[in-house]
Structure formats: structure tokens, C-alpha cells
Design brief:
Jelly Rolls, 203 residues, 25% strand, 5 helices, alpha+beta, six-stranded antiparallel beta sheet
Length: 203
């Protein structure tokens, strides 16, 4: 489903931390099946894949992302060994005003991979920004549209600051993480599951 040739040729940027952007990550004809089967999410937060209603096109994408081929492609691009790193998937569909605040990812994550599934993007907010610091959303080196088929991946470092300007409404994405251990996976799954249940209850 994915354009491995294009991923291989994509430049890995290193300022201010290692990351890449691939605007058209899917082979022709593959993206629409994933969009059609994207879970119908009506509440905010990061939702574990197991708790999202998915379809065959979406499931096929997850299977490919869990494949040795994709893992090897990410290893080669970032120069890391992910052999013993379990994967975790979460999806988002709805954003709140406070979502997108500047942050770095948890140190239990090695690599973060994002895919966006928004067919048209006319909002002023919601563009992912690769930032130089943790305080200024305007001090960015890259701004990435969350348009359908775009892939972003970055190495989790102490300075992997990122975020976006506020947006209220639909913004569909999937986040994949390679984690440092299975113990870390268990912790993330527990807290994501609990958080998703609470947000659904109070939304």
C-alpha cells in the first residue's frame, strides 16, 4: 500500500531533530480504501486501535505498518535498530481548542510515525509544526498540512518539540510508535484506554 521507493528517497532532515515528511505516502488507488474505512470518531483524544471500529481497508494498512518491510524501511532511514521495539497505534478524529499544544513525545517512544487522512484542509489551524523550542509556536522550521496521504516520522529526542495552532473539529490521523519495551507498551495501552473512555463519557 505504501510507496517504499519514495520513502527511501525522502530526505531525512536533522534540524532541529531527525524527521521526514512524505506528502504522498500511498500507492495509487490505495488511499481511498483507508479513508473510507477510517473509524467514525465523535469524541476527542487518542483512541487505541482496539477500541475504534475499523474496516478492511484500514486494517490492511495497520497490517502493513506492522510488517517487517516497513520496520526495515524506518530502521534504514533513521539508522536505528527496532528489532525488540513493540508497536502501538492510536487514532484521532476530533480536536479540541487545547489540543496541539507544544510538547515532546515520551522517552518510552523511539520513533513516532503519523499519517493524516483529511481529504481537504481549509482550516487555518491544525498544521503540524516542527519547532525549535517548547515555548514559541511561531519559531518553527517546518509546517506540514494534515492532508490525506501525508506521512510524518521523527526520532524521539529531548528536543523533538512539535505542535499546531488550535483547531476545533475534525482532524483525522493515526499515530504509530515504536516503543522501548513491552512494559512501556502495557503502560501506554492502559492509560490511553482509560483516557479514551473518560473523554467519551464527558464529551
Amino acid at each position: 500500500m505504501l510507496r517504499y521507493d519514495a520513502l527511501q528517497k525522502t530526505v531525512l532532515k536533522t534540524d532541529p531533530y531527525p524527521y521526514l515528511v512524505l506528502p504522498d505516502a500511498f500507492e495509487e488507488g490505495q488511499l481511498q480504501d483507508v479513508i473510507s474505512d477510517f473509524p467514525d470518531i465523535q469524541h476527542p483524544g487518542s483512541i487505541p486501535i482496539a477500541e475504534a471500529g475499523t474496516g478492511p481497508g484500514f486494517d490492511a494498512m495497520i497490517k502493513e505498518l506492522e510488517s517487517d518491510q516497513f520496520r526495515a524501511a524506518i530502521e534504514a532511514k533513521f539508522g536505528v535498530d527496532l528489532t525488540d521495539c513493540p508497536t502501538m497505534f492510536t487514532v484521532r478524529g476530533v480536536m479540541r481548542q487545547k489540543d496541539g499544544r507544544i510538547h515532546t513525545d515520551s522517552k518510552t517512544k523511539v520513533i513516532t510515525v503519523l499519517f493524516y487522512f483529511n481529504e481537504e484542509w481549509a482550516n487555518e489551524g491544525g498544521y503540524l509544526r516542527v519547532l525549535r523550542n517548547g515555548t514559541d509556536i511561531e519559531d518553527y522550521v517546518d509546517e506540514i498540512s494534515p492532508s490525506a496521504g501525508t506521512m510524518v516520522a521523527f526520532r524521539v529526542t529531548d528536543n523533538c518539540w512539535h505542535g499546531h495552532k488550535p483547531l476545533v473539529g475534525q482532524r483525522r490521523s493515526i499515530q504509530m510508535n515504536y516503543l522501548v519495551s513491552h512494559a512501556a507498551l502495557g503502560k501506554h495501552q492502559f492509560f490511553h484506554g482509560l483516557s479514551a473512555k473518560l473523554k467519551k463519557l464527558f464529551s
